[in-house]
């Protein structure tokens, strides 16, 4: 007795998915769910910022009811506006002062530290590299409290205020410069320095005349990040401030938000947002401009090696 067996049918490649699975069974479908989640996240994170920016131009004192467009809280009000308030105006200069001093100190020190770690070998180098990464793990509130206790008990010759704040910010921000410059060092390699030393340059001269110009884009990028992160720092500068005259704009915004704030607080937050975005944008385009020739040179090298 013969039994008939039906041959198993398999769907050819590129066939339509099963009707039961529908849209979910198509592996080449548009990721609408992921797109929806992305847009929801952007709306959740950006819309409150947009609302705060819009109400900085509100004509009245309300921060929830729109009463017309005005620049009252930026400079028109003679006492409570951002650029005329006797408390907010000095805080703006203090924020820029701390950010500039921190950038001028943290970027060169971080660059030298990155070059040293790239050249250093052995167990002490691993410990030093781990200490740099610890800056991203240790909460800033712990670092700020530790620095406060150090300045009050051991480093008493450093007064609280601008000096202590700059030291604390530099201690925190060096890690950004080290990691960015080290990433640039990994892409450069040792060929340029070795070629310079083969032509008669000393190791110090090869670093100064060859390596540092190649590291300039990374130094600009790290300077932009350090400046943007320092200008809105809150925890470290609040612990190490000596009084109201050394509090930056971030601390003033926090103190005002806990009372009965006016839209001048929104104007201060908008000012910090614009300053940070401007610095990051300038750093990005500076990095693109400085690496334009190096990217072209790298592409030519890859093409030549491929042809050979």
Characterization of the model:
- The chain has 308 residues and is an all-alpha fold.
- It has twelve helices and no strands.
- The chain has helices at 32-55, 72-76, 88-119, 123-134, 140-153, 162-188, 191-198, 203-231, 235-239, 249-257, 263-290, 292-307.
- It is globular and about 70 Å long.
- The termini are far apart.
- The relative contact order is 0.11.
- The model is unreliable at 298-308 (pLDDT under 50).
Write the layout of secondary structure elements.
Blueprint: H1 32-55, H2 72-76, H3 88-119, H4 123-134, H5 140-153, H6 162-188, H7 191-198, H8 203-231, H9 235-239, H10 249-257, H11 263-290, H12 292-307
**Backbone CA Rg:** 28 Å
Strand runs, count: 0
The structure class reads mainly alpha
Number of helices: 12
